[in-house]
């Protein structure tokens, strides 16, 4: 039976390319494997070939997909790279640094000197050739202007107090003083005080001057007032003390003439400063001088006139001194003996009002400082130019098609309405 199976076996008579003989022997391991039930089929070569062709097709399709994807991404990247999203100037104008780099001061100075030498060399070459490059010159000028613009110098505030009242030349006086104060470098505060009510005309003048101002009113009965300007100045002093304004207080009458040099000198006052004032005599035939005699900044005497000789201690005009405003409200700083408010007194004689007020601010001449040096310059003038015969004509008329006002019959300057 075993011989029959051998003769019927399909593998016995099949020759092999590598040589003759049986493909498998009984003792070979492969025969054992096939004998265990996993015998090979005659269709196995067909299936293996089909599987190999299928795998090769899959590999070919995957390579095609990979190539297409690479081609798509390459085209997309190329298009994005060529798109105009920004220019080179935008990138140059931006600062992408995250921290400031420390540059030694010596290196900065050497670079600045090198730039200056380069500019000078360019200018010399341009002069030889006959060309002018405006950019280089403008750049140097702009640097200087920027430095001057940002060189801030702190200045002391000036508090200018002006009592005023309604009269013919009031508008002229206020406009003249306002135009002078407009030329004074800030900070400056102009306190204008009127009696009983603030007039619209005065308020309109103050607004047009362009000066920082405060318009105050003194409410007092005129029948009990000897000198209205005394109460007007006291109203301003109360305002300064109440709001604790810090600066140099100066009483500037509206009918006086002031120079810009005066206001520049006021900022250097520490406590109390004084200077000589030129006054025109009543008969207008001579000029009188009233104020301090100085040795440097030290007050050593006084200029006097015939009327003020021997009547009071300090021969100073009201527009001839200024003082620190903190004296009014900072008692500890100036070691004032009393806490009484510093005010002008209406109960003393007219010639002694200035001396009584100054004695509340300083004790003697040692606490004063004369300005300018040696009190050698006249910086303001007090002129008595009031026209007493003129008046505010309320009944004057302006007829049609006329540029000249006319007044009604029976109204004359000597006979006011």
Automatic annotation (TrEMBL):
Family membership: Belongs to the glycosyltransferase 43 family.
Domain of life of the native organism: Eukaryota
Localization per Swiss-Prot or TrEMBL: Golgi apparatus membrane
Repeat recorded as keyword: no
Protein's job: Involved in the synthesis of glucuronoxylan hemicellulose in secondary cell walls.
Gene Ontology terms for molecular function: glycosyltransferase activity
InterPro entries registered for this protein in UniProt: Glyco_trans_43, Nucleotide-diphossugar_trans
GO cellular component terms listed in the entry, alphabetical order: Golgi membrane
Cofactors named for this entry: Mn(2+)
Bias-annotated ranges (Polar residues): 1-10
EC number of this enzyme: 2.4.-.-
Alphabetic keyword roster: Cell wall biogenesis/degradation, Glycoprotein, Glycosyltransferase, Golgi apparatus, Manganese, Membrane, Metal-binding, Signal-anchor, Transferase, Transmembrane, Transmembrane helix
Binding sites annotated in the UniProt record for Mn(2+): 255
Enzyme's top EC category: transferase
Protein's name according to its UniProt entry: Glycosyltransferases
Transmembrane regions: 66-88
GO terms under biological process: cell wall organization
């Amino acid at each position: 039976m075993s011989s029959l199976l051998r003769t019927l076996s399909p593998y016995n008579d099949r020759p092999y390319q590598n040589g003759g003989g049986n493909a498998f022997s009984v003792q070979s391991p492969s025969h054992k494997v096939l004998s265990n039930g996993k015998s090979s089929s005659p269709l196995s070569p067909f299936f293996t070939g089909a599987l190999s062709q299928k795998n090769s097709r899959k590999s070919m399709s995957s390579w095609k997909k990979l190539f297409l994807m690479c081609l798509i991404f390459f085209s997309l990247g190329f298009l994005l790279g060529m798109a105009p999203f920004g220019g080179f100037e935008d990138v140059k104008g931006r600062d992408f640094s995250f921290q400031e780099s420390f540059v030694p001061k010596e290196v900065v100075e050497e670079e600045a000197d090198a730039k200056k030498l380069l500019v000078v060399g360019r200018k010399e070459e341009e002069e030889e050739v006959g060309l002018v490059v405006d950019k280089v010159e403008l750049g140097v000028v702009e640097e200087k202007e920027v430095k001057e613009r940002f060189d801030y110098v702190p200045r002391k505030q000036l508090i200018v107090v002006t009592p005023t009242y309604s009269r013919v030349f009031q508008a002229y006086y206020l406009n003249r003083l306002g135009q002078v104060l407009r030329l004074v470098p800030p900070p400056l505060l102009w306190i204008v005080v009127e009696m009983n009510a603030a007039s619209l005309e005065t308020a309109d003048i103050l607004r047009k001057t362009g000066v920082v101002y405060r318009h105050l009113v003194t409410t007092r009965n005129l029948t009990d007032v000897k000198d209205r300007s005394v109460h007007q100045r006291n109203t301003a002093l109360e305002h300064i003390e109440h709001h604790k304004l810090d600066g140099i207080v100066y009483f500037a009458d509206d009918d006086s003439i002031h120079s810009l040099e005066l206001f520049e000198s006021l900022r250097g006052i520490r406590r109390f400063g004084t200077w000589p004032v030129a006054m025109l005599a009543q008969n207008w035939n001579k000029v009188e001088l009233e104020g301090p005699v100085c040795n440097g900044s030290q007050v050593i005497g006084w200029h006097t006139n015939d009327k003020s000789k021997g009547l009071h201690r300090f021969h100073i005009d009201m527009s001839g001194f200024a003082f620190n405003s903190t004296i009014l409200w900072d008692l500890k700083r100036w070691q004032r003996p009393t806490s009484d408010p510093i005010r002008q007194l209406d109960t003393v004689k007219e010639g002694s009002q200035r001396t009584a007020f100054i004695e509340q601010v300083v004790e003697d001449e040692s606490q004063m400082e004369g300005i300018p040096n040696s009190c050698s310059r006249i910086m303001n003038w007090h002129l008595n130019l009031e026209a007493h015969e003129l008046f505010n004509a309320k009944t004057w008329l302006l007829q049609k098609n006329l540029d000249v006002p006319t007044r009604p019959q029976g109204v004359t300057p000597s006979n006011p309405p």
